[in-house]
Amino acid sequence: xxxxxxxxxxxxxxxxxxxxxxxxxxxxxxxxxxxxxxxxxxxxxxxxxxxxxxxxxxxxxxxxxxxxxxxxxxxxxxxxxxxxxxxxxxxxxxxxxxxxxxxxxxxxxxxxxxxxxxxxxxxxxxxxxxxxxxxxxxxxxxxxxxxxxxxxxxxxxxxxxxx
Length: 163
Prior knowledge:
The protein has 163 residues and is mostly helical. Helix content is 83%, strand content 0%. It contains three helices and no strands. It has helices at 2-19, 41-71, 76-162. The longest helix has 87 residues, at 76-162. The radius of gyration is 38 Å and the shape is rod-shaped. The model is unreliable at 21-27 (pLDDT under 50).
C-alpha cells in the first residue's frame, strides 16, 4: 500500500514537472507560415541555453518515467499519458531548436549585410572627403589667381602712372 501511495505522489510530482515547461505550447492542427525572426546574439545564446537545459530536463524526466513504468503496473495508463505528453514536449523542443538555428542564420545574414553597408559607407565617406578637399583646393587656386591678377594689374597701373 505504501509503495502505491509513494508511486502516485511521485507521478503527481512528475506530471506537474512535465506540464510546467510545456504550458506555453499551443497545439494547432493548421500549419503556420514560416517566420524569420531576428534578435540580438546575446538573446539568441540565452534561448539556446534555455533549450539545452530543457532538453536535459526532458531526458531526466524520460528516465524517471521509464523507471516508474518498470516499477508500477497500476499506474500504467497515467504513465502512458505522461509518456505521450513528454513526446509532445520533445517535438516542440525540436521545433524550437530548428527556429533557433533559423534565427542564427538570420543573424549571420544581417551581420553580413551590415558589414557590406559599413564598407559602402566608408567608401562614400572617402569620396566625400576627396571632393571636399578638391573643392577647397580649387577655391584656394582661384583665390591665388585673383590675387596674382590683382597684383599684376596693380603693378601695371603703378608702372603706367609713374611713366
